[in-house]
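[Q] Does anyone have a clean structure-token version of this?
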Amino acid sequence: MQVYTTPKLNKVKVTSDFWKRYRELVVKEVLPYQWKVMNDEADISISEDPQNNGQDKNSHAIANLKIAAGQMKGHHYGFPFQDTDVYKWLEAAAYSFGYHPNPDLKKITDNLIDLIADAQDDDGYLSTYFQIDAPERKFKRLQQSHELYTMGHYIEAGVAYHHETGNEKALDIAKRMADCIDRNFGLEEGKIPGYDGHPEIELALSRLYEETGEKRYLDLAHYFLNQRGQDPAFFEKQIQADGDSPDRDLIPGMRDFTREYYLAAEPIKDQKVPHGHAVRVVYLCTGMAYVARYTGDKDLLAACDRFWNDIVKRQMYITGNIGQTTTGEAFTYDYDLPNDTDYGETCASVGMSFFARQMLNIHAKGEYADVLEKELFNGALSGMALDGKHFFYVNPLEADPVASKGNPGKSHVLTHRADWFGCACCPANLARLIASVDEYLYTVNGDTILSHQFISNDAEFDDGLKISQTNHFPWSGDIHYEIANPDAKSFKLGIRIPSWSANFDLTVDGKSTTLPVEDGFIYIDVDAKSLTIDLKLDMDVKIMRASNRVSDDFGKVAVQRGPIVYAAEEADNQAPLASYEVATDAKTDYHFDEKLLDGVGVVKVAAQRQKLDSKDAPLYVDASQPVESESVDLKMVPYYAWANRENGQMRVWLNK
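[A] Here you go.
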């Protein structure tokens, strides 16, 4: 009997009907549409941008690169980080080649690589705003400039493109960027002893290290993480030196946020909980987890654990969305989870998926895979319409078009997805997650292979080992594995038992088997040439409640089946949705409707609906006066699929 030391995962083919639909949508609709938008060729409206940033319908992102490359004349348009829309799109396109070769798209992306190379300065610098309109201010206002953030997003794209296509120019651009950053940042004489206001470069450099094996890129990522917060006044000092006037700000209002908002008030090892901008937090956490794993930095790992626990146990919505307030797109405080003003930026859910994946590489704990699953099937996926051409920046858990129009405090909450955004970070971010979802299904630790996502796939490892998983998840909990192990090598297969599945049945080679659950996984010793495993998960509809510390959900319940969180929509139920009451033991009925919303599981819940008082009735009355109600069935659809029909109210949390 041979023993695997580290089984190498070579290729994963996603066979899930659910995810194949989304991945093909990325190729056929999302990427072509976003390319047109970035080239200012799409007829779009961004007048309802939740950011209210006043930009018109143009992206100008490709034009900025052409101006920097000397192929056009003009000024930079958009945010200082406008380039990143292109880079995330390029990364998504790169992943798509792994499952859908497309010569026409490949010509576009190869030409785009050439354009990016032409736009890059001789020293490796590339951030078009500063190259076109402010060359004298490079690296001078890092709190707001997003320069390292922008180059980090290209580095990620370059790594992905090289990995998928073998294009050396794509990787060379990334290395030259990193070399430029390395020459300019550090504690040595003449270097900048700082870091970017928006973390991202740390995780990007870690990925570049993985692709090249060049340790100084990992060292540079480690430097940025350790240096953050060492001089809490670093950003303010730069602003003073660059001209301390609000009209010199690169993004209006950014100077008004606290040091905590930028995760710069103190060194990371001393930060007890995550504060500030939610996307910054999870990008930073992803970088910390990467670097902690490769360097063994215990302080960074401890910070990862602290931040994870605070986010997941005290500041995360049931859908996986994070970031409670529109002010700074930020975290607020523990158990503050308002549903109707929730921000829940799509990018934050994507970033939380990154963080969860990296934590799985460190700890074999099911809780990380549970959150990853929650994001994939709920919080992140909600960010895109079923047509691939409309998007949510903000993902509320309660919405009413009348409230969004009439209450300025809720104007950021859209009840239908928008064509595009002036700050368009979310659409391409979600596209790259969907296109790379095959990379999120397995984690290999030593001689153990963890299968932690129930997304049907065929996986190939070294020495001919193949693991095939088939299912109809998330609508069915019957999971089937077939393992082909021609050399009969010995390894452990860990299969996650989700926290939502209180019970499960396991059959190995046709024999009913009982195994203990260890940190969310069961482990099966494999040493035969072939093996079949059948896992039956508990897919009963569950009526959920929040911790009673969450005042906004006190006296409310939500509905979940498997990993899917459900929402009630006005499209299916008479408004107002606030008039429905559901008991904790309410009778539920589930069925799959293949014609609704491209095929979804539908849950009907027995409810009581209060009859509304007349408009002429007093505003306040004695509570002892009876209120008429009637028994009804409340129809609910998956949260990710809401707002794909007529505009109307939506609620996840229902009155108990």
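[Q] Thanks! Anything notable?
[A] The longest strand covers residues 600-610.
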